Structures are given as C-alpha cells and as structure tokens.
Amino acid sequence: MTNKLSRLLRPSGIEETIGLLALALAVFLAIAAAASAHSVKVGTLELKHPWARATPEGAKVAGGFTTIVNTGTEPDRLVSGTATFAGRVEIHEMAMEGDVMRMRPLPEGIEIPAGGEVALKPGSFHLMFLDLKAGLKEGERVKGTLTFEKAGTVDVEFAVEAVAAGAGKKDDHGGHGAAPAEHGKDGHDHAG
Ligand SMILES: [Cu+2]
To answer: Which fold has domain 39-185?
Structure first.
C-alpha cells in the first residue's frame, strides 16, 4: 500500500519541482524584462521603453525615442517636452529629401491616432534634446516630461543606451546619435 502510494506520488513530486523551477525562471525573466523595458502610462496612452542615445564627448544634442500606444477612442497629440539635462526639447522627424536624409522640427507635434501607435525611433520621429547640460552616459537614467494635448504632462525616465543603439542600416546616418555634427550641415542650426 505504502509502496504503491509513493510510486504514485514520486513522478508528480518531480513534476511539481520542475514546475516550481519553471515558475521561478519565468518570474526572474519577467523582472529582467521589466528592468530593461520600462514603460509609462498616462490616460489612454502608454509610452514604451523611453530611451535616449548616449552622446559622444562634447555633444550638445541628443535624440530621444519611445513608442506611444493609444488605447483610447480619441486621437491625442504629443505637443512638447522638457528635460532636466537639456535646455530645451523639440519634436523632430527625419525624412528623405531627394536622396538626402534631413530632419525638421514639427511645431505641431505628432498625432497619436485612436487605437493606434506611433514609434519615435532613429531615422524617423524623435525627441531632440538641445543645449545639453552634460553628456548622456550609457546605463544611466535621465528625467524629463512629455506633454500631450489630452492626456496632459507625464514624467518620463529615459534609459540611456549606447551611441550605436537602434542604428539601422549603415547608410541611414546612424539615426540620431551619430548626427550631432550633421544637424548643422543639414541646415538646422540647433545652436540658435
Ligand atoms: Cu533632430
């Protein structure tokens, strides 16, 4: 009777142990993922993994990125931002003009469609941090705010990632981090 019982129990005991290990691993992975990919919620919006590009020595500008998801039934609009580490923040886009990649400020901001999402990413829409007070170093978190027409102002922590992070093809000018020197060249004098 006892033997029979233990034979019945043993396999499930092992399964239980494996199950617990798997659960522990899942929890660990979830925590690790949460640490590297944070997000911020405000109203019907979620800002996924806000990050800024680490800057080379002496740089005065940096790019900021995040994907903004709107789960609401009305569109909203990213209209402005601030940063503790920069004199001012502008909303920019990069786009091909003929065969040259140029960037331009978007004074009207960026619409986030109802039930849709907009990615601020290298080579596309981005935040432009101007008049940097200090360089941005990989691994640190820096603070700012973003303001939306409807959702209002939200505190955002940007994870600073490597200069080459998010760079796509070699010929896309490395998106933004490689671009400080190119800003002026492209006819956008950010110093003014
Ligand atoms: Cu820019």
So the answer is: Immunoglobulin-like (2.60.40)
